[in-house]
Write a structure and sequence with these properties.
The chain is an alpha+beta fold. The chain is built from five helices and eleven strands, in the order αααααβββββββββββ. Helix content is 25%, strand content 30%. It is rod-shaped and about 80 Å long.
Length: 196
């Protein structure tokens, strides 16, 4: 185990020991690890071998990953959900999706679970291929009326405020229902949509 991981594990062991109200001698008796070694382990002054780590985990009744995934030594752990992206009106990455132009948000975030795109749908006829994404998608009509075409259902009419949650692996396309453009919020799994 690297020194950094050993130091983090040592800090976690100390925290767990204190939470239980045990002294170093108590943990030594329960784990069979010599008292002098335990002190060095908790202070990060020695690297932890696998056998010692297993003994300490058994004594503390925790899994190994509980000791090695603790917060870094130089501060508290960052919150698990610390990512954010602000999407200002009219800003974002330009996208052309199935004949509709759009602006995708949060594209600076790597490994996104989903991507929001605001589409301006002006075409009234579906002429191209179908869009697909792995997983699921959701669309909501922000303005106007649209038709949602798919390879599994008849065209679906959706108006302002209507939403559709669907399997994005099913091919789909969007057209305006009349000469008035439709603005649509599309949220799809992953980073990109593929067109047939």
């Amino acid at each position: 185990m690297t020194n950094r991981l050993s130091a983090a594990a040592g800090a976690a062991i100390r925290r767990l020991r204190r939470d239980r109200g045990w002294t170093l001698a108590d943990l030594s008796a329960r784990s069979g690890v010599p008292l002098s070694s335990l002190s060095k382990v908790e202070l990060g002054q020695t690297s932890l071998g696998y056998e010692v780590l297993i003994r300490l985990c058994r004594a503390l009744e925790v899994d190994i990953d509980h000791l090695v995934r603790q917060a870094p030594l130089d501060g508290p752990a960052p919150p698990q959900a610390a990512r954010r992206a602000v999407i200002r009106a009219g800003q974002g990455e330009l996208r052309e999706l199935g004949g509709a132009s759009g602006i995708a948000g949060a594209t600076e975030l790597l490994r996104r679970h989903f991507t929001p795109v605001v589409l301006e749908v002006v075409a009234t006829q579906h002429t191209g291929g179908l869009l697909r994404a792995p997983g699921e998608a959701y669309l909501m009509v922000l303005e106007g009326r649209a038709l949602m075409h798919s390879d599994a259902y008849a065209p679906l009419s959706v108006a302002q405020g209507d939403g559709v949650y669907f399997d994005a692996e099913m091919g789909f396309a969007l057209t305006a229902q009349d000469e008035t453009p439709a603005r649509i919020l599309l949220i799809h799994s992953g980073d990109c949509l593929l067109e047939d």
